[in-house]
Task: structure prediction
Amino acid sequence: MNTLKIVLATLLVLALGAGAFIWSGIYNPGADSPHWKLTYALMEATRERAIEHHSEEIKVPANLQDSELILKGAGQYAAMCTSCHLAPGMKDSELRPGLYPLPPNLSLAKVDPREAFWVIKHGLKMSAMPAWGMSHDDETIWSMVAFLQQMPGMTEAQYKAIVAQAPPDEDMGPMDNATMPATPDSHTHTGGHQHTKH
Result:
């Protein structure tokens, strides 16, 4: 009985302490204030294991090597992903240094297709990774996964060539050059449709 009282008292003290910490506002949520190393390690391990768990039942399509699918994915990646995940020949972007945690450089790292599909579709909480499944269908997401399998090892010239051949990204219509000024980073696909990295 005494042991139970001690346990309950301890839990109460911890709960009150946590509540006081939250209410005080002293926690710094700024992206320029890194977590403690232990906190970061625990969050990273939790995230990685969760992605593995939630993606393990996903069935990878047999056509990930299809050239048309890869070509479509190249255009999608160039339009939506380079500011955070870079591309062959890119050293950095205006956005990337301010992100925490820092997104992986996908031009260098080959990712598991099932995990890539799940992350692209569902996004990641408390990061800059959006849930693209809210605005893109599964086929389009698989095209990005197909391209990601090919990108590591590409030269800058090869990357630019495949992006130039990619079909227009109709989902990016509202973000075309009618509403956003052209920049040196803009790229034009066949058919004259222009994307601007964002």
